[in-house]
Amino acid sequence: MAQSKQEKIKKAVEMILEAIGEDTNREGILETPNRVATMYEEIFSGMNVDPRDYFTSSFCEEHEELILVKDIDFHSVCEHHLIPFFGKAHVAYIPQNGQVTGIGNFAKAIEAVAKRPQIQERMTTTLANAIEETLSPRGVLVVIEAEHLCMTMRGVKKPGSQTVTTAARGVFEKDSAKRAEVLSFIRR
Ligand SMILES: Nc1nc2c(ncn2[C@@H]2O[C@H](COP(=O)(O)OP(=O)(O)OP(=O)(O)O)[C@@H](O)[C@H]2O)c(=O)[nH]1
Ligand SMILES: [Zn+2]
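Structure for GTP cyclohydrolase 1, as requested:
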């Protein structure tokens, strides 16, 4: 992150600490604006990353059957309150014309979309669209399950509540049996 952006974050954090009545010169707090600026660099590192870039390389493999990468951990930041939501993402696709990609690329793309202020629906849709647009599979299904701290530590305060979102494209949009097959693998 550029120096000027880091400076802006530090100043803003200092102002928040002052506003809540903290002594910004107190030993434990003195370095906090710095720490937060460094942390933001990490947790918002996906701001200008296009998830489609992870799917531009594919290799030709004659496997036109289901591939499911499940239980991919992620942490993101709710754009409404700037506190975390986190959980697991599952990505299923059925390749077409042998266009298969490295399974690690799904985890990289999830990191990219998670590391920016987000809402869960957009994260789900962005991933499904990125895979559809680049690999042109017969179908893609993205399922995300997450706990939102804005719903558990504040506001309605419902600890343990989980939000599930899905985005289905191609064959998964039309074929409920195919969707059900993926969901049963996810539940296992
Ligand atoms: N659809 C959707 N809503 C979300 C997500 N993350 C947080 N929210 C909700 O977005 C809403 C923000 O609404 P506001 O009315 O502006 O915020 P608020 O008054 O603090 O609302 P509460 O959180 O309900 O107390 C809240 O209902 C949140 O629960 C998300 O990923 N998707
Ligand atoms: Zn929120």
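The chain has a mean pLDDT of 96.
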